[in-house]
Amino acid sequence: MDGESLLLQPFLISVSHQPNLDKKQSTQIRGTMLSKSSALSTIASLCFFWFLIFSFPSSCSALETNATDYEALMAFKSHLLLQQDSILATNWSSTAHFCSWFGVRCLNQRVISLLLSGLALQGQLSSDIANMSNLVVIDLSSNDLGGVLPSELGFLQQLRVLNVTKNSLQGRIPANLSQCGELQELDLSYNFIAGSIPEELGRLSNLRHLAVDHNNLTGRIPASLGNFSKLEYFYLHENDLVGEIPVELGKLASVTVMALRGNNHTGSIPDSIFNISTMQVMDLSINGLSGQLPKSLGSHLSSLEHLFLDSNRITGRIPTFLSNASKLTKLFLTENDLSGNIPNEFSELQNLEWFEFEYNQISGGIPYSLFNITSLQILKTRHNYLSGDLPHDLGNWLPNLREIFLSHNQFSGEIPPSICNATKLTTLEASNNSFNGPVPMMLGNLVALEHLNLQVNLLVNNPLSTRLDFFDSLVNCRNLQYLVLDSNPLNGIIPDSVGNLSSNLKVLTAISCKLKGGIPHSIGNLSSLHFLGLSNNNLQGKVPSSFVGLQNLERIYLTGNKLEGTIPTEFCSIQVLGILHLGENSFSGSIPLCFQNLTELREISLAANRLNSTVPLRFWDLVKVEGVNLSRNQLHGMLPVEMGNLKAVNIIDLSSNNFSGEIPNSVGSLQNLLALDMSQNKFQGPIPNSLSNLIVIEFLDLSLNELSGGIPPSLGSLRDLKYLNLSFNMLQGEIPTTGVFTNITSENLMGNPNLCGAPKLNFPMCSARGPGQGKKSSLVLKITIPIAATLLVVICLLVWLSLSRKKHLKNPTGSDSVPIGHQVISYYELLRATESFSESNLLGKGSSGMVYKADLSDGTVAAIKVFNMEYTRALQNFDAECEVLSNVRHRNLVKIISICSNMDFKAMVLEFMPNGSLDKWLHFESNSLSLVQRLDIVIDVAMAIEYLHHDYMMPIVHCDLKPSNVLLDEDMTAHVADFGIAKILAQDEELIRTKTLGTIGYIAPEFGLDGHVSTKVDIYSFGILLLETFTGKRPTDNMFREGLSLHQWVIKSFPGALREVLDPNLIYDLNSGEEGVTKKQSQVGELLVPIIHVALLCLKESPEERIDMRGISVQLKKIRAELKDGCGK
Fold first, then answer.
1. Which of 960, 978, 1018, 1063 is catalytic?
2. Which helix or strand (DSSP H or E) is residue 32 part of?
3. From CA 388, how far away is CA 367, in angstroms rounded?
4. Are strands 974-976 and 966-968 parallel, antiparallel or unpaired?
5. Could you give the maximum distance between any two Cα atoms of the chain, in Å?
6. pLDDT score of 815 more than 60
7. What is the CATH number that goes with domain 827-911?
8. Residue 128: how many other CB atoms lie within 10 Å
9. Which long-range contacts (CB under 8 A, 24 or more apart) does 331-335 make?
10. Where do the domains of the chain lie?
11. Whole-angstrom Cα distance, residue 343 to residue 798?
């Protein structure tokens, strides 16, 4: 490094450490400064030369010190692992004076600088380097040096620059670095340094640049760091620091950049740091900071340009005085608990370029004045409670607008046509609102547009046309990649101009849009298309043969239309096709033989068509298929033994066809099968014993066939089997009594008159008929008739008592009502709302009771949890759940609406979650969860448990955390449910004991063995939940036996072979380029390792070693933010 570069180096390093500058900005700034350094080359060199001469004393004995410096350099070299052709191996030799060696600079034959950046040096940093006592600059950055930072560096009294960033150093920061009184720049970033920050560093009164970011530092920030009166750059981000931010940092009167992001800081942000007038960049994001922002925020930040407070737990309103920070260009407030309105005064922020406040509780409208900020480039408002109309001239005053995100709010009115004047716009995301009126006709003016998402609104087509005319305009958007129009009543015909859309278009979806007419032949021009979704419309005619041109198409959704003709063989040429949904149309003829060529196929649905062929033999060779739905056709023939080749399949639905013959034994080899529906066919012969090998199956329907023989008792051993229907066959013999048969209903066995052994289900007892059987019949009648008469009297009495009790339940203010702060609902209202607890309204059931969907009289759709009063712990569970849900308030906890309680009946009315449980999405649903969705869900769960553990007045332990207790609302936001065995710890309690255990597979070791309950029990369960969410494997999967657990299975592949244990759906989506994940990030090892690392921290054997839930929340939010960083932040 030459002199002029050294003079500029502190500035260059500060730019590279701008915590939220994207790579492009950092490169541009750095490039500008480098060009300036070239222009000042001669002058800077001279300045540097004279600077060194007049700044440092000459040595007393050149000969003696020459030898010392030479030996120190040779010792330094000896600790390195050098290749024979490396510059140090060839250049650093005794044939030349060491002052002429590469990277060595001398003054008066004493080494004053060691500049060896970016040479890929390996080995350890030798302590002998401290023997060069005149060293002023040490730059060993961007190498691969290991070991620890030598404490002897503290002896270098002249040292002004120590830069070892981007190495592999470990150990701790030496406290005696504080003896380097002249030190101005200390950069230890991007290493593996651990331990706490020494308080002694606060003595470095000349320090201007401190960078210890991207390490493993722990502990609190020492208050002594507030003594750095000359400090300009302060980088502590991306560590594991804890505790509150010291008030003393407000004394850093010269600081321009303060970066504390990505730690575990808690408590309120001290007002003092908002009074530093020199501050230009403040990054406190991705911590656990709470409390309200000071009302005066912004009054003293006249130089502030970037303020990052996202991913914390900050509450209250956005301070109005922030508008005084007139130089502000970036303001990030996303993922907090902010409420209130956006201040009107923000119109004064005339330099604002990027403003985001997603995932808060901001309400009201967006101030009209905000759209007058002509510098605004990015506006992100998603997931708030914003409402009202957008200004009609919105686009007229935003010439620099590039991205606008308005989704998941309550906006209404028309999308202003003026938005089409914002010609630099690349992203328009307005989904999940109540926008109405026509889609703007001039969208084609947005020539830079890449993403357009208008789904789930009330948008319509131009009322003067039957064609979707706005497609004609979109043809001008030559960069368009994503076009999402789902769930709008467009009610129009797809025009031929769809084929003229951008050649870069990857996603085109218009699901549930009331589309009519045919699919245009021109659609085959969209050669880059990956995802085509046109399901649930009124499309007619044949699928055009032009689909042969869509060679990049991975997902086709055409379900729920009126398409006809034969299934096009053109699909078979799309080699990358992974999902093909053609159900609920009028396709006829046969299943194409060429489907065997679709070797990447994972899901295929041909249900509810008019197919009338056999299934091609090679169809069963699609070994990657996970879901097969051929139901409701006229398919016939026998199923071959090759059906057992579908080793990856989870769901098979062959119901309502004309299949015949025996069920092949090979079905039992489908070890991943969760649901099998073969009902309403003509299957004959016995139920194969091999079905007992389906160890994870949960749904089995063989009803309405011609099956004969006995019911295999081994079906009772299927521990996960929750639904079994064998009705209307020709089965005979004894009904098994174990497993699923303990709760089976008569409806699921009826139509088999020769079954016996279940009197409670109206099937007679089994008995062997012998020669004397007839003689005994009269005796049997003499005994049974009196018994029957007695039973009849008893039954009448019980009915009378039951009716009396129901009348008693009608009174909601009876003495048995539980006063928990919620209105009590009557039993008869629940009867009406659930259609007398009809099975058609049943959402789920367990040992403690059943859950029904209910339509209450006030229009509310709710979930009714009815407790099984025969269950010994029903009352305790009801009381525990009432106690918890009645007192807690958090957006990620399920909310209680009302109760119905009496001595004989107890029910809770809970908010309804239309998207079911996480368990169903992981193991049942054909549409798998994306990476971003999974990450959002586990963060929601973490925030809920964090609230229970840390933010409620007494810690609450859930005790049964698992995917089936994580429910998803209409926006896929997660809510933790089922507090039946929850435990509330008293203020001074960290541990209690209980005999009530959670679910096998999710139970912490200390919980299962000793009944010890602490918050760390939930941490362990959350770790299992994390692994299940990203591997797709239950902890109770049959593969985990003989000492192998889910935890151990993952550890064996972590981190190098992690891909081998991840959910294949997730890998498929990442490889396909999931939206929101850049190509580089789609490298699974890069992105998933930190998530699994968090899970492993949760699963430490000792409870004391497990991370707490607050730390989990911070880490997962950090991972999600880094995912966003790769996409533009």
1. 960
2. helix 23-39
3. 10
4. antiparallel
5. 129
6. no
7. 3.30.200.20
8. 19
9. 331/307, 331/355, 331/356, 332/20, 332/285, 332/307, 332/308, 332/356, 332/1129, 333/309, 333/357, 333/360, 334/310, 334/358, 334/359, 334/360, 334/380, 335/310, 335/311, 335/359, 335/360, 335/1117
10. 612-761, 827-911, 919-1125
11. 66
Q: What are phi and psi of 303, to 5 degrees?
A: -100, -5
pLDDT tens per residue across span 544-563:
999 999 999 999 999 999 99
Structure tokens at 304: 């502030």
In CATH, what is the architecture of 919-1125? Orthogonal Bundle (1.10)
Q: How far apart are CA 153 and CA 178, in angstroms?
A: 10
List, for residues 121-177, the tens digit of each pLDDT value.
999 999 999 999 999 999 999 999 999 999 999 999 999 999 999 999 999 999 999
Cα distance between residue 277 and residue 279, in whole Å:
6
> CA 870 to CA 904: how far, in whole Å?
10
Instruction: Name the least confident of 110-124, 521-535, 971-985.
Output: 971-985
Q: What is the mean pLDDT of residues 995-1007?
A: 73
Distance CA 695, CA 313 (A): 44
Confirm or reject CATH 1.10.8.420 for domain 612-761, answering yes or no: no
**Model confidence band, residue 782 (pLDDT cutoffs 50, 70, 90):** very low
Query: Which parts of 945-1080 are beta strand (E)?
Result: 956-957, 966-968, 974-976, 983-984, 992-993, 1012-1013
Is 960 considered catalytic here?
yes
CB-count exposure of residue 1108 (10 Å: 0-12, 13-18, 19+) = middle
Q: Per-residue pLDDT for 735 more than 70?
A: yes
* Residue type at position 1113: S
Q: Which of 525, 528, 464 is nearest to 491 (CA)?
A: 464
Token pair in block for residue 787:
């018994």
CA-only gyration radius of the chain, Å: 35
Of 60-74, 157-171, 1100-1114, the one with minimum mean pLDDT is: 60-74
Angstrom distance (rounded) from CA 430 to CA 366: 14
Strand ranges in 52-127 using DSSP code E only, listed in sequence order: 104-107, 110-115, 122-124
Length of the chain: 1129
The pair of structure tokens assigned to 1104 is 């004391």
Identify residue 724 by its one-letter amino acid code: L
Contacts of 947 (CB under 8 A, 6+ apart): 888, 890, 892, 893
Beta bridge partner(s), residue 633: none
pTM of the full predicted structure? 0.71
Degrees (nearest 5) of the Cα angle 528, 533, 537?
140
Kindly list the distances between the CA atom of residue 715 and the CA atoms of 652, 677, 718, 727, in Å, as whole numbers in the listed order.
18, 15, 6, 15
Q: How many of the other CB atoms lie within 10 Å of CB of 456?
A: 22
| Alpha carbon distance 466, 474 (integer Å) | 17
Residue 643 has pLDDT above 90, yes or no: yes
In terms of Cβ atoms closer than 10 Å to its own Cβ (0-12, 13-18, 19+), residue 1080 is exposed
**Which band of pLDDT confidence, cut at 50, 70 and 90, is reported for residue 29?**
very low
pLDDT band at 850 (very low <50, low <70, confident <90, very high): confident
Please give the Cα distance from 310 to 672 (Å, whole number).
Answer: 41
Mean pLDDT of 1044-1050: 89
Tell whether the model's pLDDT for residue 973 goes beyond 90.
yes
Cα–Cα dist 385/366, whole Å: 11
865 is an annotated ligand-binding site residue: yes
Question: Rounded CA gap, 405 and 593, in Å?
Answer: 46
pLDDT in tens, 587-625: 999 999 999 999 999 999 999 999 999 999 999 999 999
Most confident of 503-507, 900-904, 1115-1119: 503-507
Backbone angles phi, psi at 200, to 5 degrees: -60, -20
Helix H or strand E encompassing 1115: helix 1109-1125
- What is the per-residue pLDDT for 1007? 64
